[in-house]
Structures are given as C-alpha cells and as structure tokens.
Write a structure and sequence with these properties.
The structure is a homodimer of 352-residue chains. Chain A is α/β, with parallel strands linked by helices and 352 residues long. Chain A is built from twelve helices and twelve strands. The first copy, chain A, folds into three domains: 44 residues, no CATH class; 127 residues, Rossmann fold (3-Layer(aba) Sandwich), CATH 3.40.50; 135 residues, 3-Layer(aba) Sandwich (Rossmann fold). Chain A has a six-stranded parallel beta sheet, with helices on both faces. Chain A binds a DNA duplex (30 and 30 nucleotides) through helix 2 and helix 4.
Chain lengths: 352, 352
Amino acid sequence: MLGCLGRGVIMTEHKIRNMEEFSAKCGVSRPTVSKYFNDPNSVRKSTRDRIEAALEKFDFRPNVYAVNQNRRLTKNIGIVVPFVADPFFAELARNIERRCIDAGFSPSTFSAHGSVEHENEILETLRSMRPAGVLLAPLGRASDKRKIESFCENVPTVLFDCNIEGIGVPFIGSNNFQSVPLMVDYLCRTGEPPCFFEMAPVNPNANKRRDAYRLAMERLGHEPKILRVEGQGWEFESIGYGGGMRAFAEGGFGSSTVLCSNDRLAIGLLAAAYESGVRVGLGAGCSLRVAGHDDHPFSRFTCPSLTTMAQDYKAISERSVETLLALIEGGSADDSALSGLFDGHLVLRASA
Amino acid sequence: MLGCLGRGVIMTEHKIRNMEEFSAKCGVSRPTVSKYFNDPNSVRKSTRDRIEAALEKFDFRPNVYAVNQNRRLTKNIGIVVPFVADPFFAELARNIERRCIDAGFSPSTFSAHGSVEHENEILETLRSMRPAGVLLAPLGRASDKRKIESFCENVPTVLFDCNIEGIGVPFIGSNNFQSVPLMVDYLCRTGEPPCFFEMAPVNPNANKRRDAYRLAMERLGHEPKILRVEGQGWEFESIGYGGGMRAFAEGGFGSSTVLCSNDRLAIGLLAAAYESGVRVGLGAGCSLRVAGHDDHPFSRFTCPSLTTMAQDYKAISERSVETLLALIEGGSADDSALSGLFDGHLVLRASA
DNA sequence: GCCCATACTTTACGCGCGTAAAATTTATAT
DNA sequence: ATATAAATTTTACGCGCGTAAAGTATGGGC
C-alpha cells in the first residue's frame, strides 16, 4: 500500500497499529499518551494539543481489550432490565445509558426477556466483564434471589424499579405508597370508589400497590375490593384482556371504577371493555372508569386515553446513576442508606 | 482466608486467578485448556472430562479481555436497532440475540434511540469491539450513509429490516411488494378501496409500501389516494394521532378504508378516530375501516383490534443470523447475493 | 540566579491468554 | 510388537496497554 519508491508525494498514512506507533506520531511518549486517554486534563495543555492534533490525522483509538485487561476497574457499566420489549423499561434504559456515557462510562444494556435463565446468564456475562458497576432492574419474584445476592456482593450494584429486599443493596424506585393513595383519592372524589385489578404479583411493586390501595381505601372509609386475574409471564396486556373479558361476562367488577396495578394491564382491560361493548370514560353513556399506573408510553393512545400515575422516569434514572457512581467512588460505602423513592404525579386523561 | 496451619480439614478453594492455575488443578497443560475453551470437542474425551470436572469445582472462566485481545477475530456480534422502545424491534432483537448465543457467539444489542448521532456512536463503539460480525437495522433516511458504508467495508455486516441500497451489503427484510398488494386486495374485496395513510418516509420500506400500494390499486383498476401527514421522529403514534385528528376535522380521508404505512401510525389513527367519535370496524354503525402493517405486538390490543400484515419475525431473524454466519465463515463471499425477502401474511382482526 | 514542584521520558515489568514449533505421550492400525 | 497418526505437553513468544520507578526537562516564584 505504501509506495517504497521514496517519491514522498503522497505519503499514505499507514494505519496506526498501537499506542506505541501513535505516540511516535505525536512526538510524545507512550505512557504520557496513556495518561491522556485516562484523563485528558492530567497532561499539560501543550502536550494535550499535540496529541489531539495527531488524533485528528490518524483517528487512533486504544484497544479496549488491552485497556480493560490491565485496568484494575473497567469503565464499563452494565444495565439490566427485565423486559426491554416493554417500552417503559426501554425508556428507562435509554435515560440511564445517556447518563452513563456523559459520566465517561461505557454502558451495555441487557434484557432478561422475562426469563430467569436469561437473567442469570446476563449476570454471568456481566461478571466476566468486570464492570465498574451495574444498574439492575430484576425480574422480581421470578429472580434467583441468591444469585443476585452473591452478584451484588462482588459487583457494585444499584437496584432500580424493583427491589430485592433484605440484601442491603441501594434501591431507587417509585413511592407506591404515595402514588396509589393519590390516585385512589382522586377516583373517590370524582365517582364510585375503585376496585383494584391485579394479576399474580411479579414483583414487590405489585404487592405494595395492592397494599397501598387497601390502606388508602380504608383510610377513606371504603371497603377495598381486589380482583386478581390469572396468568403469568410478561404479556400483561394479554392477561388484562383475558381477565377483563371474564369479568365482563360474569357481570362486571363490583364497582364502576377500576384501578389497575399497571398500565399494561389496563391496556388489556380497555381492549376487553371495547370488545364487550362497555363504554369507558367520564362522559355520558360510559359505564366504567379505568385508571392505570406508570404512564406507559402508549397510554396516551389507548381508547379512551388512559388516566394514570406517572412515574418520575427522569428522577429515577438520574438518581440511580448518581448512586452507582457514588458507590463506585466511595468503595462500598453504607449501602441501603443510599436508597431513594420518588413520588409520582397524576396524569388525567379520558378514561377516568 | 486459606488456613496456613496445614490441618487440611477444610481446604478452602482459593479463587483461581488465571488459566495457568486452573490447568494445574485439572492436571492438564494450559494450552490444552485453552484449546478446550475454543472448542471442547477438539480435545480427547478423557481430558475433556478432567477439565469439566475441575470446572464444576472451581467455576473458572477465561478472562474475556485477554481472550479477545489475542484472538484474530472475537466471538462478539453486534446487534443494532434504530429504536428499541418500539416493541417490534425489541422482539426482533430478542430473537436474533438468542440465535447468536446458540451459535456460540456473544451478542451485544444497541439501540440508536432514533438519533443519527447515537447510531454513529454505536458504530464507533462497535468498531473498537472488533466484532466477528454485525447485524444492523439502520435508522434509514436519517442514517449517515457514508459512515455505514465505510463501516460495512471493515466489518462483516448484514442489514435487516431496512436496507441501505447500493452499498453491496446483504439485506434481509420483508417483501413489501407481496404484503401490501395482499392487503390491498383483501380490502378491495370486502369494501371500498383503501386510501394510503403515511408520514414522511423514514426509510425505504415506507417508500416501497407506498409504491406497492399504488401499483396494487392500479392493477385492480382503482385510483390510488395517498394521504401524507406531517411530523418526524420516531413517535409514530403521535404523528398518526395528529394526522388523524386533522383529517377527521377536515372531513375524512376520501375513503372509508384507510391502509396505514405501519401499525404504530394506525394505533395513533385509531386513537384519533375514537376521540373524534368515528366508529372503526366492520360492524353496523362503523364508518371507517383501518388496516396496518407489521403485526406490532400491541396491535392485538387496540380498539378495535387491528387488521394487519404480519412480518415473518422468525424467518427474518433466522435468516439474518444465518447470513451473517456464512459471511463470517466464508470470508467476504459474494455479498448482496445473500439477500432475502420474506412474505408476510394477513392477520384479520376487527378493524378492517 | 536558585529552588522546587510539576510534567514528562525512559525503562521495565506484568496482565491473561492465543498460538506456533518441537518434543513427547497416547491411541489406532498394521 | 511395530509403525503411524493424533493428541498432548513443553517451551516460548507476542498481543497492546497499565503502571511503577527513576531520571530529566519545564516553568513559576522568590
């Protein structure tokens, strides 16, 4: 490729193979270049300029594998969500990714796709990646608690969205005991007190929401009514649909207001209502009100649009990353003291 | 940790630090162990058994960074989708991931989150990962064509879902010229010929679907009617909703049947119809039929449920991975000859 | 002008493993 | 039993970079 004739007319820049060659082009020693890549501000401005000038001409990048092999701690951060096909988690992951990049780390996102086996595989993979830290939203009840626990002992980890209680790991999530009562209160003010529509709980959030519902109802002097539908897995819409169809066939919910454990369940229920000829909403001719929880990205586009409790995506992702970075910096500081729960806010739409 | 008293009662298995130590525990040489990890069947059964026995006792795993540094080609495969918050892509990615793992590779999935900058970042990251191959679903029109082209020259790549034409890279996707005419034909048989509802095309698929619609209509002796709505970005539902609201306000679509360029657009349109008091479906009292394209995971739960063309997820993911593996094996074989388009099938639901 | 802190260079070692070549063992065929 | 092929061990080198130590250059303050 490079002409040997020595004409020197067009000196084809032969590819830089390693940091040694690159440092030669800079007129700077390799260790200094190495220092530069670890922290550009750790070298004098004049040398920084020389390196960056050469960087534009040759676009060299240190070999990630060699770098990570030799660093005590890699700059990798693992992000694990239970089910990325749920736009709620996709959105959360996107936010978190961005923040990690901005903090100078290299995030890699994994989805357990709803399966424990896959979640365990991911933890194994993550282990061998020796990440600086991990942001983990576990499957929940289905998770292999011991594996997660032993993982957290070896890798700085922050749990988000779904807690695994009693393992002393920081947790960032939503405050269900604030959000659910707020919704219950709104629903009671504006119509018949709601019943609670849930599936077999996949995680602590589901349990807390039910408990919060019960408490809120009792505090308002109403009798809680809980309707649990069958079904498992992560096809919540399908479960909500099936449960809805059966309830409508058997004569309704025992209340003209239904508070769903989450939006996806509500989406299924709305489909069932539509198919059953039950008009949902506030207007005349409507016989049912439906509310959800989470402000799922699609809840704006349901028919009718879904009244729901918005989780504070931004705060959760921001605080999760902050907490992890603090954990990475400060060694293994006091753990669960770093936990944080965020309030949600009411999103009033047409369904309730 | 390890008692120094020599009692030997409980010999705490001190952590294996590297392959050297591990091979000692096996009573096998390190190069042989190395061979084993590259291909367990490349060593004699007796030694394989010894290694695997030790493997259970010490759960040693080769350092991924050291491995990848020294191998000519890593076992990594990059998977890139334009927007993972779209469950369609999440589903595709999940399928592809699984197949890569089964083939003995380590997939990492990335989402461009709808932004070119992010897509380019991902390509850079991917480059420094020196992957064996990459499965890339580009953003489409928004993509930086030159960067993708230069990337494909250096890394074995298979495009899926969305083609970048004229760069000689294998492409696996859906056959829009089969699927759209099929839908058009069905709609014409059962009611008024459809108009076509689209947004500014984000990728070649959108263009092809429109062209296929036009052709199909002309072939059936009907006049094509195309309604393009404004809006950009990846919030298709929102665009469909906005376009729908305006169309209903201005007196409809010029046909009582609307074929949408994709399901997400249709989901937005259905929301607009509902809000505008327009009944969608086949039954009495319905004034509009709506059909989509893709069999989006949520299209079962729209109100009414959405009649659509199902893309063959399984075939696309399977063939994409197969093609990439062939590309990896056979060096840079004849490229675009490996392309493949798959037929879709009609999914009849309540909306049309 | 000297002193000293800082930044840099040189030199050197190690990380954990792939991989090649040569010597040796083991299994299979004759 | 002997020849032959296959598998394994030994030995050795290299990958690209982090990092430490010791020496050299740089620059600011007095």
